[in-house]
Amino acid sequence: MTVHPDKVFAPTGAVLIIGGGISGMQSALDLAGSGFKVYLVEQSPAIGGKMAQLDKTFPTNDCSMCIVSPKLVEVGRHRNIELLTYTDVLGVDGEAGAFTARIKRKARYVDVDACTGCGLCELVCPVTCASWFPESWQDGATPKLRARDKHIIRAKAPIEPTTCASWTFTVDAEKCASCGLCYRACLQGAVSWHKKEPAVIDQNRCTGCGACFAVCPEKFSAVTVTAGEDLDKSLGAALYARSRTIIKQRGESGRKDCIRCGLCTLMCTKVMGIGALTMVEEGIEAGRDICQVCGACASLCPVGFLDIAELTTKTVRPLLDEFNEGLNRKKPVNILYPQAVPRVPVIDEASCVHLNTGFCGTCRTVCGVGAIDYRQQEKEECIEIGSVIFSPGIEVFNPRLRGEFGYGIHQNVVTSIEFERLLSASGPTSGVVRRPGDNRHPKKIAWIQCVGSRDSSRGRDYCSSVCCMYAAKEAYIAREHDAAIEPTIFFIDMRAHGKNFDAYIDRAVDHQIRFVRAMISRVYEDPVSGDLELRYIDEQGGRQIERFDMVVLSVGIQVPEHTKQLAATLGIELDRFGFAKTNGFTPLAASRPGIFVSGAINGPKDIPETVSEASGAALAASAHLATARGTLLSEEILPQEKILEPDEALRIGVFVCHCGSNISSVVDVAEVTEYARTLPHVVYADHPLYTCSQDSQETMKELIEEHNLNRVVVAACSPSTHEPLFMSTLRQAGMNQYFFDMANIRDQCSWVHPQEPEEATAKAKRLMRMAVANAVEAEPLTELEFGVDDNLLVIGGGVAGMNAALEAVKQGFGVYLVEEREQLGGQTRKLKKSWDGQDFAPYLNALVEEIEAHDKIRVLTHSVVVEQSGFVGSFESEIMTPSGGGRRIKHGATLVATGAHEYRPGLYGLDSRDEVMTQTDFETAMVENPERSASWHHIVMVQCVGSRCEEHLSYCSRICCNQAVKNSLRMRELNPGTRIDVLYRDMRCYGLSELDYRRARMAGVNFIRFAVDERPPHIDTDSAQLSVRVYDPSIRREVELRPDILVLSTGMAVNEVDDLATMLRVPRNDNGFFIEAHAKLRPVDLPSEGIFLAGTAHGPKNVTETIAQAQAAVGRAATILANKKLKLSGVFSVVDPANCAVCLTCVRACPYGVPVINQEHTAYINPALCQGCGICVAECPAKTISLGRFNDKNIGAKLASYQDRQPVKEVLDG
Amino acid sequence: MLPCTGRIDESLLLKSFENGADGVMVVGCLEGDCHYVNGNIRARARVQRVYEILGQIAIGPERVRMYNLSAGEGAKFAAFTTEFYQKIKELGPSPITIARQSKPREVPVS
After folding, report:
1. With respect to CATH, is domain A1133-1187 assigned 3.50.50.60?
2. Could you tell me which of A984, A979, A909 has the C-alpha nearest to residue A938?
3. In Å, how far is A426's CA from the nearest CA of chain B?
4. Taking the model in full, what pTM does it have?
């Protein structure tokens, strides 16, 4: 009998990620790092999303751009991530494992591969406004426009001829029709003309304004111009260059009066083809009816004389920079933001003059690599993938829908995201806080919370989760920028529910940030001063009127309409607000199989939660593709590395980059190159236009070969973005990639010294000289490779550990699941129902059953891990089993999921009186003892019992408010007549759980707020009748409650794992929770490489969040376990045992505890663990530790070559 | 450029003065924000030691100073640099530089 195997199904080993924010980027890196091909689609021109727009991040005040830009670069450079920016997804067909996505790549008009991101196009583009293109110009026909509405912009002083004329105008006698137009146009009397004779220009009187050139009719074109800078490129480029020259010569202080330089006229007539401007005796004559309002004339004017609004009768529509929330202007050709990846501009079809009228085209003529392509067209493509991650992100609420706050009417009312840009050092005000109305420094700033959140009248019933914290952060940072600022935050509940958030709020209070619990009814503007008046009822019930200089609206987050449409196209279900519908036990799976959701589409959330979900979604998306892992990757084939002969002479090649004109407009690159040739060992030096461009890299390889170079120095831009590129080029050319150094002569030289070209050139020489000196001392470094064991050790068998184990085996890894207790299940065993009403018991049983049935999961209950040695990829651990014997296991990564438990403080008679219980006890009683619970007619719940206080738990346990709401609702269902009073400090029903909170209020649950410092409730549990006296602020009097039972929300305390933490050498915070490697971007990594974290051992969280985090931790672990080998950076500390005195200094100094004393009795630093900071190198008294490129001889060589002379040693010795 | 200010030791700072620097700025991450946990705190201590040494050998302790900045604070960096430059300008060339200028290289010693 023949057995028919199931249909052989080979899934596609690729994943489509929709949305290139921090979520999409993290998913992409995790997937690509664990063997899958990634297509990362982003609708905007660059990845980075909302996080790139933020200034700082809470609760660490980390600079957002500083932490996100390395990720941007990594995504941009990853071999297995194909970035598809400025691309829309049209649809996804097929089924999980074998989808086909249809995408549309929008026309960018710039060749992404050729562009080097130098930004020259954006610099020279003269257009600043959305034009009103001439209506009479159609189908390419551009009949000459005739102005009827002429208006003269009068110059204050008479003609002041510009003296910087390097342009020469001549009349071609053969073409001249002797019409005399040029004669009449010339204001300098430089043209002599007689009827029937060709005009002649007197070069001595000509100022080079080009009036003759502008006026000479096209059909004759008798006037020609020669000898101007950049004229060989185009007139537009030459006008830009000339404008810069005039500005340079006149200096910034030049008065704002017309100098008749003629740039505006030439621009309007000859570049834009409009001809609305003419120079006349009195000033500039504007044809206001024909002006297309492109803004080119004004942007070029070197003296700031022209105001575009005066030149036209049409509305001026400045192009607003959406990245800066419209707070400043942009050009039609625009790079989204300076650190954008890809750093490639997009040309805006709507506003580009060339794309609309065929004129201008200046950007194309200045692009040194020919990347501008006006004929580019959008195209549709299909890509084959196995699954989809949908992480499209959010937008902010439109504050105009809350008209009472006056956004868009009162100039000094801004949104929080706008304020974020105002704080940012790279924002429109360079981080100086100014109010938009009058650029004045504001003193009193008010934040109004919940604008577009917790607001059912605007259909935003949910809480946006992040606004309380970001408002506190913005206030905090604003005060850091300007200590005179007095911030006030008007809030309803302070929702600081995340890890270390409460401590942050406390710091904010210490930082003189005022928090006022009040809802603002309206914002009035004083029309004279622009100040704003806020009216509110304070907590005592008094009416207050307070004036502020500026108001920030803490706008909520929402799902954009186009995202909802895209979700519909993808066939995934959303709730009524547009958030994805998911199941509480599979939180990252969308309703359509094979599509996963991550980030704020899954409900409002902050960055760490988003990053965590992103790793989880990466794992979930690859679970059914595990068999296709590695099938679609491209491997780089490298030539054999050349080994240098011991006596081989140094042959250094130096490349000094122009960076278009970014460097060369300030630094004399030719001179720097010439100087390089004089330095010892330099055998080749040149100055390419773009050293980083694709063809320059090819040339570099050829030059290395041709000149037999054994060291390369590049003087160009920032090593943090470009060093990996050059180093890989060296490696491709067969060199060791560490025979390289880079001098940053752009960011650290030409960009900061544009006004001092000579000094800048001298500095560039110095930086380059130091890099050459360092290259002389460079040594070849080896990037070690070692094998990886594909087993995962999971410590803790609760919901987190069990989910992690099952996820890991789906990926094909082996698992050791170690649980201290006899039974798997952890804390969740004590809970009954999830927030979405599902029973925990059958869920847990199914998990246990599946785990026990799986042969790749080895469950060790009643066991503890007692020792771990080794390093990422190859750990070895000893486990103490019930038999008392130790069992040694090998594994590539470790996952800590040791959990937490409900805290039981000895307060209010808990554990001594039956009528006093915790929320979990209460939940259990409702399910297991319905008769008893039916006898309760009055229940009082008290929140924050033993939480947020110094004597017990100092933090917020995040889950208790929701637990109280959930249990109240359940009780009202079971016994609708029962009265429930909930005494609370802040109801922290974050995100979509706000809906339940609202439901509970509607259902008649009574919520009474108390202030713990001022009027804490008096709870009497000693008398026979329980009694609670509390001041109720809503009726402003004290009430006495006499409940049948008292339910305490006691919070969550971490399980004691002192020994484990010490053994793994991983840190914990004051509250005993593990500290992740980075609070924002590595939320499930522990600081020791290869050890991960999930569940409540990280911080309090609910079951759904725990499951998502377990998936995340395995997703991160997969980036190690899925690789057969791991490669390390070549830069790590090495101890030379010869001089080691075993003084233990390095052992104590290393912040990561890496150095150990080995069996040979010398210090040993494991390269796999070393982070490469060099602290031990500096501390070692015997100077016997070296660190790759940062040894004393390297730094010493740089210091010695700082001054242009021989090293000081000779002098001193001499 | 170094991976971390924690890589700097006293000898490197002193060597800079030997090599003719009139002032040395050490710029690290904000305290508490060190990319490598505590390297900048160690650097601060080392800069302090060099500060004392420079005082003892009459070169002038103010010629070395540590600043802390985040990567997004370009304007502040410029302000710090200007401030330090002005300070050094007031102090004039370091005694090492003066000594070297008054004792040209050709002068044979021993």
Report:
1. no
2. A979
3. 8
4. 0.88
